[in-house]
């Protein structure tokens, strides 16, 4: 068997080189897939206090493929990449100038991830909207708001600029107008009771509040404010739910409500 393999290598050197290279690349691909899944799994595991995001998985992928290509060059072609790596060192300055933005984004991603400044699942204010971080890659951070709009922000921008974290919960406001003779304490208790049933599992620490602003043209104006978990509903949906839940009370007390979209 060994002799037959040696004869095959002697008679078909090109085919042998191709098969060897393909085998090495296939093994690299398998290892890369396994390592990437392990890193992503560790990052998503809440019981393991390690930074999440695909940036480390992407770095591992690049490193493994470079290692695989180095092995192919050495085993299949007998080419030592030491000289090539040395040449890269000589041209490193020119290369770094051409890849300034890429390098800045890479290191920015590492800094915000390792420093736990940004983690997938965090909420931040972006362009006057609140968006949830879904991933931190080697180039950019991806955020999605309640309407489904996606924001792609370079990591260097995330690192250099001031970030305002929104928190897991957010306030949803619905303006109301009450009859001036309304018993406010009674009305407030009934509003809290109705909305507690509507948002049983999604209420935030600030809970439900009824804040009165004073007299207006239509009566006693105020706002029903509810602290709700951000990933449960969009602001428009939550405001609609609040309006529907307190509608019987508004009719009972002779009031009018206007949803703030």
UniProtKB/TrEMBL annotation:
Residues 101-161 form the Mechanosensitive ion channel MscS domain. GO terms for cellular component: plasma membrane. GO terms for biological process: transmembrane transport. Residues 58-100 form the Mechanosensitive ion channel transmembrane helices 2/3 domain. Keywords: Cell membrane, Membrane, Transmembrane, Transmembrane helix. InterPro entries: LSM_dom_sf (IPR010920), MS_channel_1st (IPR049142), MscS_beta-dom_sf (IPR023408), MscS_channel_2nd (IPR006685), MscS_channel_TM-2 (IPR011014). The chain crosses the membrane at residues 12-31, 52-75, 81-99. This is Mechanosensitive ion channel. Its main location: membrane.
């Amino acid at each position: 068997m060994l002799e037959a393999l040696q004869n095959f290598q002697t008679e078909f050197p090109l085919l042998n080189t191709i098969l060897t290279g393909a085998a090495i690349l296939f093994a690299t691909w398998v290892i890369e897939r396994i390592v990437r899944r392990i890193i992503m799994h560790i990052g998503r595991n809440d019981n393991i206090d390690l930074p999440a995001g695909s940036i480390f998985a992407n770095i591992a992928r690049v490193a493994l493929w470079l290692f695989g290509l180095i092995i192919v060059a050495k085993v299949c072609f007998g080419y030592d990449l030491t000289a090539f790596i040395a040449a890269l060192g000589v041209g490193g300055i020119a290369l770094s100038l051409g890849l300034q933005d890429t390098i800045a984004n890479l290191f920015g991603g590492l800094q915000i991830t390792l420093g736990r400044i940004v983690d997938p699942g965090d909420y931040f204010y972006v362009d006057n909207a609140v968006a949830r971080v879904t991933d931190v890659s080697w180039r950019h951070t991806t955020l999605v708001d309640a309407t489904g709009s996606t924001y792609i922000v370079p990591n260097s921008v995330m690192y250099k600029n001031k970030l305002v974290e929104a928190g897991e919960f957010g306030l949803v406001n619905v303006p109301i107008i009450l009859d001036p003779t309304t018993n406010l304490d009674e009305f407030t208790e009934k509003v809290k009771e109705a909305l507690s049933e509507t948002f049983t599992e999604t209420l935030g620490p600030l809970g439900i509040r009824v804040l009165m602003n004073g007299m207006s043209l239509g009566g006693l104006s105020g706002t029903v404010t509810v602290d709700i978990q951000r990933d449960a509903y969009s602001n428009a949906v939550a405001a609609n739910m609040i309006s529907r839940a307190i509608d019987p009370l508004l009719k009972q007390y002779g009031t009018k409500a206007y949803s703030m979209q």
